[in-house]
Design brief:
The chain contains 15 helices and 22 strands. The chain is of the alpha/beta class and 485 residues long. It is 29% helix and 20% strand. The strands form five sheets. Strands 1, 2, 3, 8, 9, 10, 11, 21 and 22 form a nine-stranded mixed β-sheet that branches. It starts with 6 loop residues before the first strand and ends with a helix. It is elongated and about 75 Å long. It folds into three domains: 224 residues, 3-Layer(bba) Sandwich (FAD/NAD(P)-binding domain); 105 residues, no CATH class; 124 residues, Succinate dehydrogenase/fumarate reductase flavoprotein, catalytic domain (Flavocytochrome C3, Chain A, domain 1). 55% of the residues are buried. Helix 1 runs parallel beside helix 15 and helix 4 packs antiparallel against helix 5. A hairpin with a 2-residue loop joins strand 10 and strand 11.
Length: 485
């Protein structure tokens, strides 16, 4: 195994010099590079792949923004930073980083305008249905803000901002952010992977990298910003820090190997919340809102209209699988074709008993779950889990069940076969300006981090758009701070 220990400046010859060196050209790296270059710094960006974009370019492209953006206003919502903060504190918790979160919410409108200045297009229209992502070009979507218990904590407002394209919007987002960074003067060196930090008198002054078989050394006069992603692709690191994701699919472009975290910790950096993860169970929200989600014992365990990432965490981390999306004929016929993601039920039965036998559920369990659900739905209530009344009605046979293990998001994407995938949220311990801290809480001079390489606003929860949102927000702050030296 190649050493990741830092290298002394006196022991290398520098091949390139710049003011700010950004390592990784995904969303956080593009934001850091754009801000540093806009501040007048000479910026180089190292990208290990043959082109920029990274996992961000393959993402859904949601940006969690609020506090009163122009898109929210155009759709008739009067949002505030305080309501945004209250919702995210609850949804990203327990133990969300309140200092970072407060800054993020207070600066959200300005951050939205920065995206627009970078050329990211948003349509002032709302996608009102629950789902992982819209099949329309609508610029705003709900991400569980209107579901219990969050609608009792803060005034509900949709905050999922979407670039104007259907389905996966990460490509157009990254096209605009990369364009903004290069227009500001940042220059990318591709096929170049950072392997070690270079230090001098306790300060990080550069990076040793590998370009194919060649060693290349970079000096950074003002700072190095690490934005190399998380560590979901590193099985050893998962086993050590986030074993809940072992055996599941990886939401990544394949390069989230923890390399940035490793070279920083070798230089004395501290880490934070390395066990925190995002998990996506491919149960279709359009189906379960109209029906129900049950576990391997045939029992409901959450209000199905909640944000999908939250029912995913509840399922994978706390319940017995496999999981089943249960729907009746009337509910199934109410779903738009585009909202089915090309998935069809494999199991069906005229009665709940027939369906339960097909699924291998304990005798009587699913029947009892449906009977209880129907009895309460007739009264327009869900006293156990508080699903919104607009989704409540008695379910009547014939019934069908969809197995999340069949996947969607594209053929074979959930290749692990568990119906679940995710990525890591923990990383380097940083200040709100991206300055990396050591285990004594002191700043490591010249070293910054953002995106999933750093521990951001998250506690033990997750909402779509908060990775791209906080990665770019704190990436910008890191870029500005590094440019100032």
């Amino acid at each position: 195994m190649a050493s990741v220990e830092p290298v002394g400046a006196a022991d290398v010859t520098f091949d390139h010099e710049c003011d700010v060196l950004v390592v990784g050209f995904g969303a956080a790296g593009a934001a850091a590079a754009q801000e540093a270059a806009a501040a007048g710094a000479d910026v180089l960006v190292l990208e290990r792949s043959s082109g920029p974009g990274g996992t961000s370019a393959q993402s859904g492209g949601e940006l969690y923004l609020g506090g009163g953006t122009e898109v929210q206003k155009a759709c008739g919502f009067d949002d505030t930073p305080d309501d945004m903060f209250a919702f995210l504190k609850a949804a990203l918790g327990p133990h969300a980083d309140e200092e970072k979160l407060r800054l993020y919410c207070d600066g959200s409108v300005e951050h939205f305008e920065w995206f627009r200045a970078c050329g990211v297009p948003f349509k002032p229209t709302l996608f009102e249905k629950p789902g992982w992502m819209p099949y329309t070009e609508d610029g705003l979507m709900w991400l569980g803000e209107n579901a219990w218990p969050y609608n009792t904590i803060a005034k509900p407002a949709p905050r999922g901002h979407r670039p104007a394209t259907t389905m996966f919007a990460g490509g157009i987002l990254m096209e605009k952010l990369i364009g903004a960074a290069t227009a500001a003067g940042a220059v990318a060196h591709q096929d170049t992977v950072a392997t070690n930090l270079v230090v001098e008198d306790g300060r990080v002054v550069g990076v040793v990298a590998r370009k194919f078989s060649d060693r290349v050394v970079y000096r950074a006069r003002r700072g190095v910003v690490l934005t190399t992603g998380g560590f979901v692709d590193n099985e050893d690191m998962l086993a050590d820090h986030a074993p809940i994701l072992l055996g599941h699919d990886k939401v990544s472009d394949g390069t989230s190997d923890g390399s940035g975290i490793k070279i920083a910790t070798a230089a004395g950096a501290a880490t934070r919340r390395m066990a925190s993860v995002e998990i996506a169970l491919t149960a279709n929200p359009a189906v379960i809102c109209r029906g129900m989600l049950v576990d391997g014992l045939g029992q409901r365990f959450i209000n199905e209209d909640v944000y999908p990432g939250l029912f995913s965490h509840k399922a994978v981390q706390h319940r017995t699988g496999p999981f089943w999306a249960i729907i009746d004929e009337a509910g199934y016929e109410d779903i738009d074709e585009a909202d089915m993601w090309g998935v069809r039920p494999v199991h069906a039965g005229e009665t709940a008993t027939e369906l339960a036998e097909s699924l291998g559920l304990p005798p009587g369990a699913l029947e009892a779950t449906i009977e209880t659900y129907n009895r309460h739905a007739e009264q327009g209530e869900d006293p156990y889990f508080h699903k919104d009344a607009k989704w409540l009605r008695p379910l009547k046979g014939p019934f069908a069940a969809i197995d999340p293990r069949d996947g969607f998001f594209g053929a074979g994407r959930m290749g692990a076969g568990t119906g679940a995938g995710g990525f890591t949220l923990g990383g380097l311990h940083t200040t709100v300006d991206g300055e990396v801290l050591n285990n004594s809480g002191e700043r490591i001079t010249g070293l910054y981090a953002a995106g999933r390489t750093a521990s951001g606003i998250h506690g033990e929860g997750y909402i779509s758009g908060t990775s791209l949102g906080d990665g770019t927000f704190f990436g910008r702050r890191a870029g500005r701070k590094a440019a100032g030296g």
